[in-house]
Amino acid sequence: MAVNLTQYHSILSQLEKAGATLVAVSKTKPVEDIAALYEAGQRDFGENYVQELVDKAAALPKDIRWHFIGHLQSNKVKYIAPFVHLVHGVDSLRLLQEIGKQATKHNRCIDCLLQLHIATEETKFGLSENELEELLNIVSANPLTGVRIRGLMGMASFTSDEQAVQTEFHQLKHIFDRYGKGNWDILSMGMSGDYQLALAEGSTLVRIGSLLFGERDKN
Ligand SMILES: *Cc1c(COP(=O)(O)O)cnc(C)c1O
Description:
Blueprint: H1 5-18, E1 21-25, H2 31-39, E2 44-47, H3 50-59, E3 65-68, H4 77-80, E4 86-90, H5 93-105, E5 110-116, H6 129-141, E6 147-154, H7 162-180, E7 186-188, H8 195-200, E8 205-208, H9 210-213
Parallel strand pairs: 1-2, 1-8, 2-3, 3-4, 4-5, 5-6, 6-7
The structure holds pyridoxal-5'-phosphate (PLP).
């Protein structure tokens, strides 16, 4: 499946107006497709699986900024700690501590986003607002080294009900403003099907896969 460069430039111009960043989600797609988008100027790419990310990072140019957007297991942090640019889906204190520990081994400080559960589906990962507040209280009492919380990430419900999706993004933005208190600068929300709604609600970073790379095989 070829990369859709027309779509890429159209998305970029929409993001430019909104002042938002594009993370091209390349999970399951071959390195050739990533290289094609890299040639067009794209530098931020997102992956969901640790082994796949490690393999692709080794095979592709070193100035790519790799975003880990999947559910990260604590025992796998060490594999991506040397190079990962931003970890989007952090949803426990234990994971945050492990990222800090592994980052410190490489003299790094890794930027992280805390994942909020905003969708109605039960399968999606993420913190509730209460859990977020609790985590932030612990971290402010005992500051962590090796990690920096830059903001929040969330996934809206998988539904064609635009009003429902918009409401979820609106809530996430509200929580972002409330707990970030002006110190956070990254709100990661919006995918191929809902990024325009996310931008309208204040997203600063969208994660787009299938619009750029074509549909993925369902697994
Ligand atoms: C796969 C994935 C995306 C991209 O999804 P598309 O609908 O293909 O744009 C974005 N965010 C996360 C967390 C993903 O797992």
